[in-house]
Amino acid sequence: MRVLFYQTSAGVSPVEKHLNGLPLEERATIAEALMAIEKNGIGEVDTRPIDGKLWEIRFPMQRIFYVLVAGPTLVLLHAYKKQSQKAPRREIELALKRMRDVLAYGG
Questions:
Q1: Within a 10 A sphere around the Cβ of 55, how many other Cβ atoms?
Q2: Going by CATH, does the domain composed of 2-105 fall within 3.40.50.1000?
Q3: Full DSSP string of 23-71
Q4: pLDDT tens profile 24-71
Q5: What's 76's DSSP letter?
Q6: What strand order describes the sheet that includes 62-69?
Q7: How far apart are CA 59 and CA 15, in angstroms?
Q8: pTM, to two decimals
Q9: pLDDT of residue 84
Q10: Would strands 73-81 and 62-69 be described as parallel, antiparallel, or unpaired?
Q11: pLDDT, tens digit (0-9, with 9 covering 90-100), for 7-29
Q12: Distance (Å, rounded) from C-alpha 34 to C-alpha 88?
């Protein structure tokens, strides 16, 4: 399975930017999980559905929203630091907007 990072029209990857700001240990844990997804598929990580085709990869203190598109390809849309039980609506709305962009583009 391919893992791709969503990029804005300016060529910036919000998920990569978020991950680069994390402590090295957290970054390493997430990088290992993403490599496992590329090698073995999504089944080895903790995920949950959010809204329609929007899903979330769950880490102890971080969340990454994604969408699966043809290929199979997993597109990482948005990441944020977990601070409460429920995902904040503004984080979900931003991920949904990016998901619509990806799906409109054809994946």
A1: 21
A2: no
A3: -HHHHHHHHHHHHHHHHH-GGGS-EEEEETTEEEEE-SSEEEEEEEETT
A4: 999 999 999 999 999 999 888 999 999 999 999 999 999 999 999 988
A5: E
A6: 2-5, 73-81, 62-69, 54-58, 47-51
A7: 14
A8: 0.92
A9: 85
A10: antiparallel
A11: 998 999 999 999 999 999 999 99
A12: 23
Q: Which amino acid is at 60?
A: P
Cα–Cα distances in Å, from 5 out to 2, 36, 103?
10, 16, 14
Task: Break the chain down into helix, strand, coil percent, rounded to 5.
Answer: 40, 30, 30
What ranges do the domains of the chain cover?
2-105
Q: How confident is the model at residue 105, as a pLDDT? A: 79
